[in-house]
Amino acid sequence: MPSEQDNNGDIAHHPTYSELLGEKIRFRRWRNRWNIADVVSRMSTPVDEATYAAWEAGTENIPIDMLPELAKALGYKSMKQLLPTVDLT
Predict the structure, then answer these.
(1) pLDDT tens by residue, the chain, 89 residues
(2) In a domain, 69, yes or no
(3) CA–CA separation, 89 vs 25, rounded Å?
(4) What's the pTM value of the predicted model, to 2 decimals?
(5) Fewer CB within 10 Å: C terminus or N terminus of the chain?
(6) 27-53 burial code (b ≥16 CB/10 A, e <16)
């Protein structure tokens, strides 16, 4: 099968799940879609005030290891349902 190439002729790289685990994510427009205080209150992992404020301001990414719990707090049945809503930045 031929390799995919980007506009510069370089072979496109698609990150694997294991690579994504080392990254952090920022939710695309998530502050507009969900009430942050409500979501955080449903999480069993405590979120300190500074982190909460950074999420609310959109200045700090959400660590990918919090995805499963965040997905549950948002009402998703699995983390896989949540992944299409994230933007890797």
Answers:
(1) 344 444 555 555 555 555 555 444 455 445 555 666 777 777 887 777 777 777 777 666 677 777 788 778 778 777 777 666 555 55
(2) yes
(3) 6
(4) 0.45
(5) N
(6) beebeeebeeeebbeeeeeebeeeeee
User: Does some domain include residue 58?
Assistant: yes
Rounded distance, CA 22 to CA 53, Å? Answer: 23
Rounded Cα distance between 76 and 81, Å, is: 6
Report whether 45 contacts 69 (CB < 8 A): yes
Is the Cα dihedral 36, 37, 39, 40 positive or negative?
Answer: positive
Total length of the chain: 89
